Amino acid sequence: MENKDNVGYIYILASPNSDCIKIGGTEYPPLKRIKEINSSDTYKNLGPWSLIDFRQVKNWRKVEYNLHYSFRSRLNKSIKHQKELFRVSTQEVSKSLNMIEPEEIIKKPKIDRMFQDEEFFDFIINLFKFTGLMNWLNIQGAWTFVLFPSTVGGRYFTINIGPHEVAFSTVGKKNRPQWNMILLDRLILDFEEVLHWISFHKGMYKTDCYATALQRSVSIFFPGSFGTVNEFLKLDGVRRALIAYWNEALIRMNEKGLMSTFIRYHNWNAVAEILNRMVKNNINGMEFNRFTK
Predict the structure, then answer these.
(1) Euclidean distance between CA atoms 105 and 128, whole angstroms
(2) Residue 184 belongs to what H/E stretch?
(3) Helix segments in 139-237, DSSP class H
(4) Tens place of pLDDT for every residue, the chain, 293 residues?
């Protein structure tokens, strides 16, 4: 049984003003740690530091020690009062994160289950791509991605920005179809093709149905498989409405420095694996954006 005191996060940070990367660990979410690092005397002059890769593990102190030991010959010893700056590429450290022993990874069975369903994973990749969610890695915790949460009615996944859901799918059963919800900006109502599609698929939409949502929010509900949801994402106007709402909501969360009430359920390792898959396939130039060292 894992020691709860050692559960935490391993992270890789990079900065355009440093030829080194920072490899560290923490017991609390990286968002808080990154803020501390960017304001500390040792690191702030080399910042701003951004989150490049991460894992949630059962014993972060052990994993951090092993990583530091692996790259000890490339430790930057010219900067005083630190032992976490290394002259090594982010690709190399990310490979080491991918080699962490499976039993150290938090919630690994749920992640494996996600990748066993190719149609679901294809949809999730498209959703993350179309919304630009990976551009907000630094503020994970303000937004959350939860796999197979224990909710009434059964959810396959849910994504929250702050206190409200912006996307979810229910678990379909023999006598009950899978239902899907995606929240967008109201400009989606200007696209007649989308409205016809919703009607044809026996769906519905509601405006401003979440008290905590921003104004102009529209929640689209419809039954169907993840293949059906992928079809919806590709309709003209959907991507524009997704970006308009999700990015505005994320900007506000970032400006206020707020955390989601669902942060304890966020699946960090699932997001890390989605990121790795996107980088591997160079989706939207993510390989260039991520590996700059």
Answers:
(1) 22
(2) strand 179-185
(3) 192-200, 226-233
(4) 456 678 999 999 999 999 999 999 999 888 888 999 999 888 989 999 999 999 999 999 999 999 999 999 999 998 888 899 999 999 999 999 999 999 999 998 888 888 888 899 999 999 999 999 999 999 999 999 999 887 656 889 999 999 889 999 998 777 889 999 999 999 999 999 999 999 999 999 999 877 778 889 999 999 999 999 999 999 999 999 999 999 999 999 999 888 888 898 999 999 999 998 888 877 664 543 443 43
Chain centroid to CA 116: 19
Domain count, the chain: 2
CA 200, 128, 139 angle in degrees (round to 5)? 135
Tokens of 271: 């997001």
Answer whether 144's CB lies under 8 Å from 168's CB.
no
Residues 224-245: b if buried by 16+ CB within 10 A, e if exposed: bbbebbbebbebebbbbbbebb
User: How many beta carbons lie within 10 A of that of residue 2, not counting itself?
Assistant: 12
Residue ending a domain, among 88, 106, 124, is: 106
Query: Tokens 């390792």, residue?
Result: 269
What is the residue type of 91?
Q
Tell me the Cα Rg of the chain: 20
Let me know: does 110 contact 267? Beta carbons within 8 Å: yes
Beta bridge partner(s), residue 146: 158
Give the residue from 106, 121, 151 where a domain finishes. Answer: 106
Spell out the alpha helix ranges (H) of 20-82: 30-39, 60-70
Q: Is 251 helix (H, G, I), strand (E, B) or coil?
A: helix
Same domain, yes or no: 60 and 113: no
Amino acid at 201: H
Q: The whole model's pTM is what?
A: 0.89
Do 100 and 112 fall into the same domain? no
